[in-house]
Specification:
Length: 100
């Protein structure tokens, strides 16, 4: 009986630890973001942008989160612009974006 109680308590402790860790993970935005004609549904993480011959990135952010744009293709470095949730924008030519 003591082993069974210890096992239940151990499982509860592990479940509690997992529950604490999960909220910190990245979550997908809900909605559609269109970047230079590319349609992305529920985007998440770092997304590389389709390149064009234009000097700006044309964005329609129909998601519920702000999109942050970077010159790099891997979301590194300082942000170069943002487009708020539900807004359209033209940040300078970007190589990638994140949703936050």
């Amino acid at each position: 009986m003591k082993l069974r109680i210890a096992g239940v308590l151990g499982a509860a402790a592990v479940a509690g630890t997992v529950a604490v860790l999960v909220p910190g993970t990245a979550q997908a935005a809900t909605g559609t973001l269109v970047s230079n004609g590319r349609v992305l549904v529920n985007p998440t993480g770092c997304v590389r942008i389709k390149l064009t011959d234009e000097d700006t990135t044309v964005v329609s952010n129909g998601t519920d989160q702000t999109a942050t744009f970077y010159a790099s293709i891997d979301c590194s470095g300082d942000p170069i612009g943002t487009v708020a949730a539900g807004a359209d924008g033209t940040p300078p030519m970007a190589g990638s974006f994140t949703i936050n």
